[in-house]
Design goal:
By secondary structure, the chain is of the alpha/beta class. It has 3 domains: 166 residues, 3-Layer(aba) Sandwich (Rossmann fold), CATH 3.40.50.970; 167 residues, TPP-binding domain (Rossmann fold), CATH 3.40.50.1220; 200 residues, Thiamin diphosphate (ThDP)-binding fold, Pyr/PP domains (Rossmann fold, 3-Layer(aba) Sandwich). Strands 3-2-4-5-7-6 form a 6-stranded parallel beta sheet, sandwiched between helices. Strands 11-10-9-12-13-14 form a 6-stranded parallel beta sheet, sandwiched between helices. A 6-stranded parallel beta sheet has the order 16-15-17-18-20-19, sandwiched between helices. β19, α20 and β20 form a beta-alpha-beta unit. The mean pLDDT is 95.
Length: 562
């Protein structure tokens, strides 16, 4: 039964009112005639609207907002072509455990199931990509369904919710009561779990802590840094989660991403106790599910995760704790561990190996432009709160291995491995945090998947800096081809534009860099321009990875008889 308010509103107005009530202050969209009633309601709203150039870019911007704030933004896209364009961003939000609401225009209710213009069954299409996919048939149920979507998106393992909006439903006028602001459901460890945790940690001689997932806060990251220091325990992070622990801290020993330090992989295998906080230890951080036995790990496993469905899903933990990282960290602040010579030695060795692995001075790659020197320069000149973004590709190895992430909220990168993410993520970050320095890395292939969102940065005067690492090919796939089919490369060569000219054509600032010594002045000019900027860095195709060349990959494959 619905309570009346004495005031009738259109479905579009009711929807915008719910967004405001739930604290959604930003909408990223590509407009469509299917939700004109919502756009009209936004006209008089305090909600900020960012119009994007592609629905995939809009979804990625909304996902970046969720990563930085812990609360969903709203992404609005039009019927089927728009919705399917947005699928890449929805997939990122699902795999990265990021809260997000996606609203999709739909055909009128009276013509459904006739294959009407741009009709699509959104429940069927997005059920595998979202926590929930639904359609609102009755405008009076908008407050109920938006409230449910908010709670689902933020609670447990966060993720995207997709809501379809029939066009005629949005212009229906109804009298309905608003919902209340949603809050994520929280749970804390029980006293017995705290006691068991302390007992297991106290007995461990080689404990290793793995941080990952979402539902962290700046306060939780700072508090856990102090806890790790007091415990004297080594800390690693899962793929693209370096912002969860300062890399300059004595307890940090590296990241379990693509191509991690082989010594770190051995330290994980040698650990007698693993404490996973927020991490699912999925395929990449587990190095293809090789770091722990399945289903029963050889190490003592303490698994902390906000979604009970993830506990025991792959690995059977010795101790399972159903709690979000922030609440778990708050509960364990009083745990003290006895001094341990073996634990101290284990930490010191792992830390020294990380320092050697991340030393840019030890790296020299083919070509006149040395990416290790670029990273060294940026580490010395970027502020600690700079937000560094990237998509997918071998170029990202330089960022993950060498950049000194020091604060929560300083990293935006897709654990789903999606290309094209860095540019829209940077634009979305600068849109909501205009006072922060925002930098994006992109490969030449990665950039051109969503490079048109540079126009969005120009439109809203967002001075992001995009560093394009151009080796004239789809480098990751070329590397795999040379490893599996040496000398038989196909479909990986790229002929690229002059990206500095591209930037200027959009109204931004462009630089072209071919030598290491030219990067610092180019970066300073880009920063001083006050405009969105692209620094086009041309690297030798042989410089495929800090640790090896493309030719060495091919030679090893030939030697192995491939």
């Amino acid at each position: 039964m619905q309570a009346n308010t004495g005031r009738a509103r259109t479905g579009g107005q009711i929807l915008v009112d719910q967004l405001r009530i739930h604290g959604i202050d930003h909408v990223f969209c590509v407009p469509g005639e299917s939700y004109l009633a919502v756009l009209d309601a936004l006209h008089d709203s305090s909600i900020t609207v960012t119009v994007c150039r592609h629905e995939g870019g809009a979804a990625m911007m909304a996902e970046a907002h969720g990563k930085l704030t812990g609360r969903p933004a709203a992404c609005f896209v039009t019927r089927a072509p728009g919705a399917t364009n947005a699928a890449s961003g929805i997939h990122i939000a699902y795999h990265d455990s990021t809260p997000m609401l996606v609203f999709v225009g739909q055909v009128e209710r009276g013509v459904r199931e006739r294959d009407a213009l741009q009709e699509l069954d959104y429940r069927a299409a997005f059920q595998p990509l979202a926590k929930w996919a639904t359609e609102i048939d009755d405008a009076a149920r908008i407050p109920e369904i938006v409230s449910r979507a908010m709670h689902l998106s933020m609670s447990g393992r966060p993720g995207p919710v997709v809501i379809s909006l029939p066009e005629d439903m949005l212009v229906d006028s109804v009298d309905v009561q608003d919902g209340r602001a949603a809050q994520a459901a929280v749970s804390y460890p029980g006293p017995q779990q705290i006691d068991a945790l302390q007992a297991l940690l106290s007995k461990a001689e080689r404990p290793l802590i793995v941080l990952g997932g979402s539902r962290w806060t700046p306060q939780a990251v700072e508090q856990f840094t102090r806890i790790a220091q007091a415990w004297g325990a080594p800390v690693t992070v899962s793929l693209r989660r370096q912002m969860l622990f300062p890399t300059d801290h004595d307890c940090f020993v590296g990241d379990l991403g693509f191509g991690p330090n082989p010594k770190l992989v051995q330290y994980v295998k040698q650990a007698d106790l693993l404490l996973l906080i927020g991490s699912r230890m999925s395929e990449v951080p587990s190095q293809g599910y090789t770091l722990m036995d399945i289903p029963v790990p050889g190490q003592t496993l303490i698994h902390v995760h906000p979604d009970a469905g993830e506990l025991g899903r792959v690995y059977q933990p010795t101790l399972a704790v159903n709690a979000a990282p922030a609440e778990f960290v708050e509960a364990i602040g009083q745990i003290a561990l006895p001094a341990s010579e073996s634990r101290s030695r284990y930490l010191a060795d792992a830390r020294n190996e990380y320092l050697a692995w991340s030393d840019t001075a030890a790296i020299h790659s083919p070509g006149a432009l040395q990416m290790a020197q670029v990273m060294d320069y940026l580490n010395k000149h970027l502020p600690d709160d700079a937000i560094v973004c990237n998509g997918a590709g071998n170029y990202a190895t330089w960022v993950h291995r060498f950049h000194h992430f020091k604060r929560f909220g300083s990293q935006l990168a897709p654990t789903s491995g999606s290309m094209g993410y860095g540019v829209p993520a940077a634009v979305g970050a600068k849109r909501i945090l205009p006072d922060r320095t925002v930098l994006a890395f992109a490969g030449d292939g990665c950039f051109l998947m969503h490079g048109q969102e540079f126009a969005t940065a120009v439109q809203y005067q967002l001075p992001v800096i995009i560093i394009i690492v151009d080796n004239g090919m789809l480098g990751t796939i070329r590397m795999h081809q040379e490893r599996e089919y040496p000398g038989r490369t196909v479909a990986t060569d790229l002929k690229n534009p002059d990206f500095a000219v591209y930037a200027a054509a959009f109204g931004g600032h462009g630089e072209r860099v071919e030598r290491s010594e030219d990067f610092p002045p180019a970066f300073e000019r880009a920063l001083a321009s006050g405009k969105p900027a692209i620094i086009h860095c041309l690297i030798d195709p042989e410089a495929i990875n800090p640790s090896y060349t493309l030719s060495s990959v091919r030679d090893a494959a030939v030697a192995a008889g491939r």
